[in-house]
Amino acid sequence: MKKFGFTLAEVLITLTIIGVVAAITLPSLVTNTGNAQIGPKLAKIVSSFELANEMMLTEESSVSIVGLAHNGQNLNTQQYVNRLRTYMRCTTRSASPDSNLSSHSFGDGYIVTTKDGISVYIPIQYVALEGVNDIVDSNRRRLSMIAVDINGFETEPNLDSKDRFYFVLYDDGTLRPKGSILWNNATSSDATTDTEHWSHRTKCPNDAVPTDPTYCAGSVFENNYKVLYR
Predict the structure, then answer these.
(1) What is the torsional sign of CA 227, 210, 189, 222?
(2) Which of 18, 203, 215, 224 is the most buried (most CB within 10 A)?
(3) pLDDT at residue 27, as a whole number
């Protein structure tokens, strides 16, 4: 008489094999899925941020963010963020940076959070200044280095190149991803020539482990919003 079905030992062996395969492939699958979300989320927040700045400048008939100040006074960060909140329809709050941002010398600032949970951190010490001229375009001024966290600053892992990325906010309302070709023409406290900035792109190369993950926003934007680094 023929037997139908499987013995308990056969079932256990099959489940064990499935478990081993899942343990091997699941982390890679989770990583790939997470990486696939990085580019679109960064593109979305940059687009929203720049659009809000454009609307702000248009309605105020200004060509520069610092030009929004009245009576000859510099525009401070709180004033800028309050206006930005109106155009982005988002929430804001003042906050001290977490330990990761502190390690990059970010002081106190303001967190702008969209409805879908993407956060932008704008430090106080930059926007309150008149700005630093761009190396190539003297009419464009660097206002601030900002940090973007695609799942919010209160949600782990809060790691550079994983869910946190860095950009430069310019006086005309545009953003430049740190480490990109555009970053090549930006001024920075740690570099003064185009050559030095260009060399920074090697800190987050394609298909390699970044030596400085803070430059990986440039890699994402230069590769059609894809994560190619490991």
Answers:
(1) negative
(2) 215
(3) 56
